[in-house]
UniProtKB/TrEMBL annotation:
<feature type="signal peptide">
    <location>
        <begin position="1"/>
        <end position="22"/>
    </location>
</feature>
<protein>
    <recommendedName>
        <fullName>Organic solvent tolerance-like N-terminal domain-containing protein</fullName>
    </recommendedName>
</protein>
<keyword id="KW-0732">Signal</keyword>
Length: 172
């Protein structure tokens, strides 16, 4: 008779234990989902989502009186927009907007700028290594009003301009 009374009590305890375990599992699943969401939401440098912009990056190269400034914003699709400024001491300078894409370790941009009263569009290709971008150089040709590299495998990143990453407030 005692065994019959203990059996329902054991069954009730087992039922509560399973429900508690399910609750703990559910709470852990929610915690994991929240963590995953935080890992996959793209935040800007300041930790906030800024109209789809993941990050703002700035780069600078100074060579004597010449400088090259790159200020870009990158979104979650690795699309890039920003500004590229060539400030040259004894040559024409060029400053204009850039737009493009990051492909692996390569930044491919179209640089639109005014020079001598003419709107120019030039493809600019940068190779990223650590916190530096190396400006590519090589033969270009005009295609639909944009000077592009016909064969990107021929672009050289040797003996070229090297931009170092800097804090963006330095350029602002």
């Amino acid at each position: 008779m005692n065994k019959l009374r203990i059996a329902p009590l054991g069954l009730i305890m087992l039922l509560f234990a399973c429900q508690s375990n399910q609750q703990d599992t559910k709470e852990q699943d929610n915690l994991n989902a929240d963590t995953a969401n935080m890992d996959t939401v793209f935040h800007g440098i300041d930790g906030e989502v800024n109209n789809g912009v993941i990050v703002r990056e700035c780069y600078l190269e100074v060579d004597g009186r010449d400088s090259l400034k790159l200020n870009i914003e990158i979104d979650e699709q690795l699309s890039v927009t920003g500004k590229l400024d060539f400030a040259n001491y004894q040559m024409d300078s060029s400053s204009g907007e850039v737009s493009g894409k990051i492909i692996g370790d390569t930044l491919v941009l179209v640089h639109e700028y005014q020079a001598e009263g003419t709107l120019n569009k030039v493809e600019r290709v940068f190779l990223k290594q650590n916190d530096q971008y190396f400006l590519g150089k090589g033969e270009t040709e005009e295609v639909d009003g944009v000077y592009v590299y016909p064969d990107r495998s021929e672009i050289s990143f040797e003996n070229t301009r090297v931009l170092d990453r800097i804090e963006c407030n330095i350029l602002d």
